[in-house]
Amino acid sequence: xxxxxxxxxxxxxxxxxxxxxxxxxxxxxxxxxxxxxxxxxxxxxxxxxxxxxxxxxxxxxxxxxxxxxxxxxxxxxxxxxxxxxxxxxxxxxxxxxxxxxxxxxxxxxxxxxxxxxxxxxxxxxxxxxxxxxxxxxxxxxxxxxxxxxxxxxxxxxxxxxxxxxxxxxxxxxxxxxxxxxxxxxxxxxxxxxxxxxxxxxxxxxxxxxxxxxxxxxxxxxxxxxxxxxxxxxxxxxxxxxxxxxxxxxxxxxxxxxxxxxxxxxxxxxxxxxxxxxxxxxxxxxxxxxxxx
Length: 292
Prior knowledge:
Elements: E1 15-23, H1 29-38, E2 50-55, H2 57-63, E3 79-80, E4 86-87, E5 94-100, H3 103-116, E6 121-129, H4 150-157, E7 169-178, H5 180-184, H6 188-195, H7 213-216, H8 219-222, E8 226-227, E9 230-233, E10 238-246, H9 249-261, E11 270-272, E12 276-280, H10 283-290
Antiparallel strand pairs: 1-5, 1-6, 2-5, 3-4, 7-10, 7-11, 7-12, 8-10, 9-10
């Protein structure tokens, strides 16, 4: 039985860094995978840091075709609907997600990891994140109300034992910028209609509009996912890192398609800057590719 990378389920961490990487010219996919997989050595887990490593689907399939989920593809083109709304595609070759108790440790461990990979990859996108008011995002609403419990999360997120890519998971990573002034100009009652939940306690509205965020991403209709979203940014430029895991990429893709086709009312006040899918291999798969 293969095991998922434990950092996926390490709740309660106070500081996060997301490093998206591209291979340097002339670096073979296998060389990049080996270098990233080797970061799983003990030196990168000192100081209570969780490190989750993943790869662009096509790159991983080239290196380990027998360990690649069937049909898994990168975020290789923008997603658009009948409206002018569009989700950009910014697929990269690999991702490192580091989380821990404090930013100084995350900062130092991230620098060490980047240094270890300097001969094979360059950082293409870097974002730092932190929790806000315990479990709320920067809209002021509780984030992840429908998240499964940790007991149930692996059933939702982790690919089954008898399937290609077993023990792994599919990550959808997006950076969403908020128009804070427009959003905060709305009365709470109007914000609740946009989200589809009450702000104070996250109870779902009985009369939520069909274009509310809850309605357009309805997990009872589209399927369950496991989310580890976090706020990012500064006082004047901020938003949400969407960090969604699923054993089935189609669930994640259907949610995005529903958001742009409805269109989701929340997209009037927040818009995606990035979009990428990554395959997060099992612990055993990483050990195999590292040669350890």
